[in-house]
Structure formats: C-alpha cells, structure tokens
Amino acid sequence: MTTFTKLSDAETPVVSIDPARRLSKINPNIYSGFTEHMGRCIYGGIYDPGNPLSDENGFRKDVLEALKDLNIPVVRYPGGNFCATYHWQDGIGPKEQRPARPELAWLGRETNHFGTDEFMKWCEVLGTEPYLCLNMGTGTLDEALAWLEYCNGTRDTYYANLRRKNGREEPYNVKYWALGNEVWGPWQVEQTTKEQYAYKAYQWAKALKLLDPSIVLILCGETGVTSWDYYTLKNCILPLNSPLSTSAVPLIDMHSIHLYTSSDKHLPNVTAPLAAERAIELASSLIDLAIVENKVPPTQPRPTICFDEWNVWDPMRAVGSEGAEESYTLSDALAVAVWLNVFIRKSKDVGMACIAQSVNVISPLMTSKDGVTKQTTWWPLLLFSKYMRGETVAAHVSCGTYDGETQPEWVRAVKETPWLDVSAARGDDGYVNAAIVNISDEKDLESRVNGVTGEVVVFTVTASSLAACNMNGKQEVGIAESRWDGKGNYVFPKHSMTLLRWKAE
User: Fold this and answer.
1) I want to staple 222 with a disulfide (CB 3.0 to 4.6 A). Which of 88, 153, 228, 374 is the partner?
2) How far does CA 80 lie from the centroid of its chain?
3) 441-455 pLDDT, tens per residue?
4) In this predicted structure, what is the pLDDT of residue 502?
5) DSSP string, 366-430
6) What three-state secondary structure class fits 342?
7) Beta bridge partners of 309
8) b/e per residue 53-71 (b: at least 16 CB within 10 A)
9) pTM here?
10) Which residues form the Alpha-L-arabinofuranosidase C-terminal domain (predicted)?
11) Distance between CA atoms of 157 and 98, rounded to whole angstroms?
12) pLDDT at 474
C-alpha cells in the first residue's frame, strides 16, 4: 500500500519507505504468464520444430532461457478466446492423427500439433505450473471432467489410462482451472448472460471438485467494476452448508478480471493502469459483499482476485486476427511498471496476475527465426520479477500531480495521478526494494527519500525519447545499474523507472 499527499509542483517531492511496516504477502503468482493459440504465440513462439534453435521437443531454447530469467510461477493456457471452441481431445495422441480445425476466435487454422501433453512438458522444462482454461462456450461438463481426469487422475479409469497410453504414467496434478474465459463478451462463441453463467459455473464447480477437491477454481469475472462481477460473486461465493453445494471444500477460490490499457498520448498511457488499481479495490469489495450477504463463515477461505489478462494493448494498433504483434515504446514500458506497482500495492487482494501474452502476441519477448528480441516492456518486468517479492511494505509519497486527461476517462474522477508512482517491498533476503516511476515527460524530480539506510543499488530504465523502441535490431531501452550512498536528495529522471535496493537495518 502507498499513501499520497498532494503538493504543489514547486515543492520538493518526498518518498518515504517504512520497511518495518510489513503489510501483506506478495503472492509470487502475480508474475505469471499466458500462452494462447493466437498469432505466433505457440507456433513460431514457444514451439518451433525444425528450427535449429529448438530442442528435441520442438521447444525454442532461446525462449525458454529468456523466460526462466523471469522465474514465472504459473502459465495460463490455451486461451483466451481460443478456448471457447477448443476441444482438448483434438490435441492429444499421435500428431499425424490429430485433426486440423477452423479456429474461430482469431479466424485461423489450428493443426493441434501442440496440445495438452506438449504444454505440460513445456511447463516442466520451464519450471512453471500449468493453469488450464475450460471451454464453457461449445464445451460440455463431461468434456471438462474428462480433461481433469486426464490431467490429474490416479485411478484405473478411462481418461487417466488414456494419458498413460499417450506416454505419461504419473498425473500432471494441474492445480489451477478457469471456469471459462470472457463468456460475457459479444466476441465470444456462446456468449451468455450473467444469470446463465452463474448457474452453470456453480454446477460445473460442484462436479469438478467432486472429482478432484484439491484444485483451485477461478470464476469468470469481467473487469471487476460491473454488474456481471457483482452477480456472479453473489451467486457463486456461498457457504459450504449451502443447499446448492455438495462439496466439502469451497467451490470458488478466485475471481478473474481482465483489463488492457493504452493511449497514443504518454501521460494518459502511463496513468491508465490506475484503472486496474481501482478495479481491484472494487472487486475486492464485491467479494466482501458476497461474503456478508451470503453469511459465509470466517472459517471459509476468502477468494482472491486473479488478474489473468493484463497488459498495454491497443487492439486497433495490434489487431488480434492479424497476430497482435506490438512494437512497444519507452512510454509503454513505464505503463507496465505502473501496472506492476499496482499489483504490489494491492498484494493483499491479488492471488495471481498473468501478463498477456508471454511470447510474440502483445508480448515483451519477440522471436524471429534467428533469435529473440527483448522489448522495452521486458525490462521493468524483469526487475519486478527479480526483486519485488516477499512482502509489501508501507510507503508514502508527497509530490505534485498530473491533472490532465486520462484513459479511461473515469480514472480522473476516482484516482489521484501523482508524478511519482511508487511501491515498496521487503524480500525474504532482508533487502528493501522501492520501485519509483517518474511519469513526467518533461521534468526530472529531485526528491527526498526517507527510510534508506547504507549504500543503495540503483536500477534505471529510461531513454532519451518516449518513442524509444527495441525492435528492428535496436535496443534503445534496457537497464542501467549504478550506486547511491543514500545521502541527500535523489533525482528521478523524467520518463523513467527507478528501482532502489538496500539492506534493511
């Protein structure tokens, strides 16, 4: 949590960090990823058989090496919109026998050469956990139960034996399962109403947890600020003794929300992620309201928020049906840094966050046949995933504010937009890490920094221009490392992200 006091622009900004005030655990799952059968995310991204850069499984080794640097705990699959017409059994067994299908989400052709077993193997090689999204569009409950049995079954049953026949004796033990994806959206095959979805989701949840009560089920929310979110939470977060429930464990563990932000103007672009902060706050309140109204006992675990699609994305600029390949700028990198600050500040409520997507599709990592490019947005993501772990600690910022237009427009009415966007964390190693984004496109901000002790390691992400980009063979944005003695004021450069790191007393 970071509190804020508005100053005039003429006053000296102050950033105060209190490492002793540990507020909430940061769930490592906020650094999760997402791979969808969309554009070049799978084929030509993580899976590229025949390329000399790929291993014996067809997995791009350079992609794996890069993603390992992020220490990604969970990866969501196979969508996204793709899952609304995806039938998982098309993607198992001998590749030459798998049917090619028309793909309706992004209007492509799906060969099904990469499916469940390939994804599970890729997760094992990467060292991450799988998170599967169920088809609640054209799919059936029987199909969902069969997929769960195939992945997690241990008994002498049909789909567990089918997995064994396909070469995997031990269960995959997939923990995370989503009850559909964006089924509220008009772009979805089998779009549904909130009333239809809430009933269906709860009935599916009962059956899935009867088959495997250990799994984590994730409800399909919208943006966290809609009547859909209220209704589905109200009707699906119920006490264990509810007449609707036959389960010995809570049926809904997390509530999914999605949001993408963007603007072609820098200041609206870099402040847009504050919409996500307010969305998390409101969705958290709706969870509490459902608990209160439904008399859920305090002994029952409280659901958390799964922000399983987030990023900077302008779908008019990076068209989904054309592969959604984006060339990110420094402005976009700073917006990603503000996104990540939001997740640190709201660590009490966020149980998972998945950047969409992990490779090629609106991604910080791009492939060519010869190698990978780390886009501008890669660098704040790398710094956060490496250092902003452990516990959120108290921070307070006093500075001036940006008072212009915002995107979305409602951000201006519900959130303050300070020139310095800040979060702070204390790691298990005893180090304090403070991430400070100076969103100003014009002014360096000389600031007093309270709470710093001893020598400070400084990581800075910036460039001479907000339009700086790392595509087309250039790397104009990266990480510069330096040292600061912690004395006097510190100057946060204009349009920059700075991470300060020091040993706590």
Assistant:
1) 228
2) 13
3) 999 999 999 999 999
4) 98
5) EEETTEEEE-TTHHHHHHHHHHS-SEEEEEEEEE-B--S--SSTTHHHH---BSEEEEEEE-TTS
6) helix
7) 258
8) bbeeebbbebbbebbeebe
9) 0.96
10) 308-496
11) 23
12) 86
Burial label, 409 (beta-carbon count in 10 A; 0-12, 13-18, 19+): exposed
Quick: pLDDT tens for 81-135: 999 999 999 999 999 999 999 999 998 899 999 999 999 999 999 999 999 999 9
Which of the following is catalytic: 36, 110, 149, 309? 309
Q: Beta strand pairing status for 496-503 and 456-461?
A: antiparallel
* Catalytic option among 129, 182, 277, 391: 182
Q: Has residue 243 got a pLDDT over 70? A: no
Neighbours of 468 (CB within 10 A): 19
Q: pLDDT per residue over 196-219, tens digit each? A: 999 999 999 999 999 999 999 999
Q: Model confidence over 313-347: pLDDT tens digits?
A: 999 999 998 999 999 999 999 999 999 999 999 99
Helix and strand element counts for the chain (H, E): 11, 22
Residue identified by tokens 């956060």 is 384
Residue 455 annotated in active site: no
Q: What is the pLDDT of residues 14-35, one digit of tens each?
A: 999 999 999 999 999 999 999 9
- 65 annotated active-site: no
Tokens of 290: 């459902």
User: Residue ranges of the domains in the chain?
Assistant: 27-271+306-315+350-357
3-state DSSP assignment of residue 482: strand
User: Burial, 325: exposed, middle or buried (Cβ in 10 Å; 0-12, 13-18, 19+)?
Assistant: middle
> Which residues is 458 bridged to in the sheet?
482, 500
Mean pLDDT of the chain: 96
φ and ψ at 486, to 5 degrees? Answer: 80, 5
User: Which residues, listed in sequence order, are joined to residue 259 by a DSSP beta bridge?
Assistant: 310
For 337, the token pair is 């840094």
Contact 487, 455 (CB under 8 A): no
